[in-house]
Amino acid sequence: NCFKNGILPIQLTEEQVENLFHLVTENKGFTFTVDLESQTIKAGDESQSHLLDEIKFDIPAPRKSSLLKGLDEIGETLVHSDVIRAFEEKYHSANPWL
What we know:
mainly alpha, 3-stranded antiparallel sheet, 10% strand
């Protein structure tokens, strides 16, 4: 359901989660950035980059593409509406009794 709602589900190890939690609670103003394009989590500010090693995460390419384009499953289908419409017209012409 996350992908259907435009939410990126990332699975991190317990150690990674604890490290991020510690950094945020112990370093006032610490931020981090989730970069979908590069599939990384990194410090949100260059001055804080020494505090956090870049964390890589995996995401299936089609899901990544949809999130980057802001499309849900219906939106992905509508991208191909011209092809779908052409198929339907051809199919109905070949099978007029349907």
